[in-house]
Amino acid sequence: MKSKNLLILIVVLAILAYFGLKEEKTQEGAVAISDPTPFSTLDLNSITKVKLIQGDDSLVVAKSDGLWRVATGELDFPVDFSKFKTFLRSIAETKLVERKTNSANHDSKFGLDADSKPVKAELYSGEKVVVNLNLGDVRKGKSQGGGQFGYSYAPDIGHYIKVGNDEGVFMAKEKIDAELRPASWMQNAIAKADKDDITKIDFVYPYKAFSLEKKVEIEKTTDPSATPKEITSWLASGDQPEGYALDSEKMSQLLDQLDEIRVSEPVKSSQAEAFKEGQFYGVKVSRGEESLYDIKIQQVGENWYVYQTDKPQEVYQISSYNVENVFGKSDDLFALAKTEVLSDLAELSYKSDKLDLSFKLEADKWSFAGKAPQPELKEDALNKVKDALKELKLMDFHPNYKGEQSGPELIVSDKNGKKVSIQKVGEVPLSDGIVLKIQGKSGVFSLSQSDFDTLFPPQSDLLALETGWKSEEDLTLLSFKDFELSKKDDKWAFKDGSAVKKDAVTSWVSALEALCASKYLASGKDFVVKTTAKVKGKEGDALKLEFSDANKGLAYARLPQFGGVFEVKWDLVKALFNGKEHFSEKNENVESAPK
Questions:
Q1: What digits encode the pLDDT tens for the residues 59-75?
Q2: Contact 313/76 with Cβ under 8 angstroms?
Q3: Which of 447, 234, 188 is nearest to 328 (CA)?
Q4: CB 317 within 8 A of CB 265
Q5: Which residue spans within 55-207 are E strands per DSSP?
Q6: Residue 361 exposure: Cα atoms within 13 Å on the Cβ side
Q7: pLDDT band at 45 (very low <50, low <70, confident <90, very high)
């Protein structure tokens, strides 16, 4: 069918639909609305339950002991009464401005047919249904027609309704919000306290606990006519880092975060039981001996959950941002971020079970302190480590940390020979913190992942670990364990004179250039040579490669010009040592090394 005929058909159908609706509305005086305010006499105080149904989903809000709660299946939590009252009033004040149909023949156009899944709202007084509404959503139904090309912009859900047993469709003046999403009915803040009332805060972390207590003193004055002023300060007790005093100026910001604990959505009771085992963060806010609120927060997977200790059945999801606002303040409160490890750095060393790298700093120039010859240094990364050590941005203090993980160690020395060790001992969930043991400091501290990566950068950031061969033109000899290739008059051949496959050496050089080590193992312990290659260039320079067996996708390589052993990817090693057939012109079916 041509596009012109299709457009004519659409216009005709739109006209027929319009007159079909118009005819239905004008039959038997249907335009008149007998009662435009059908619920104006509704006694809202008599309502005891509201049920919302949409397809297979439902939500029940019921009054219990004078309080309104969502009580649907495994959900049970108090509603925000201001939101609930707004919903009830929107029904009581509903005004019908037009009858759109007189029957169910056109329900699909108003989102009121079964396929559109309208929201059914039932209001109960005791066991009796006093309000029965169906709320349409035309965005799920068919277009109404009208407007350019037969389309119109339809009102939102709640504007088109069915009232009681009347099969006709009405248009209401205002939208009726009947949201089935539980979070839309809950209180956004589950714990509140006026910060001026707070006199004590008890914090519990997985690896520490401390308290902050307000102290109010009267300023001493020698002027009898002056009005005495109150001086407020905060004192800390419990687990706190040695040598760090509480910064009272940071307390105001913390109190702002504690005046209310905001949540995201309620959690089903069947899931809630898992949140009450294992490690948790807790905060109790008090006024004198009176507890204003006492909450516990836990992490499960990537999500955080919170509940009040006196209401353990009401569990809510909380954003990690809100968790960090409350529990990520130790660095501010105790000025941990001002920690200086060493002011006059002279040497730093990285150590692990296979790693031993040392660097010296003299006259702002770094040198490699390992075995010579050595790879080229990347001084920018070393200077970043130096700067980070001047003011270590510690996140938190964990005096009772029980982790047993042993990670890499950084040992720093100053010009007087003083040494300080910094070693990774584990991780904490909040803010993806890396736990560090710092020599000379009691307990352990956490550092953000990004700041940890600055202190412990990848070796590829510290050392230039490329082989140094840039093109095939530099090479004159490739000597392997079982065969040898040499170049004469710019042509490659085996010792027996047989030809070398075209581009085979080029592929090998490409693989050699890609052979960038990920780790430098200066000691080379337990290294067993399995495969070797020797390379000669035009100037007589030689590159000797020695490889051990692969281990978990990695291999160990000794590059004598670097004076140590490297950890490299095994697939790159295979590209270098895949046998004579890789180079032989007689076997063209063998895949060349990756470029």
A1: 999 998 889 999 888 88
A2: yes
A3: 447
A4: yes
A5: 57-64, 67-72, 75-78, 96-99, 119-125, 128-135, 160-163, 170-172, 189-192, 200-205
A6: 19
A7: very high
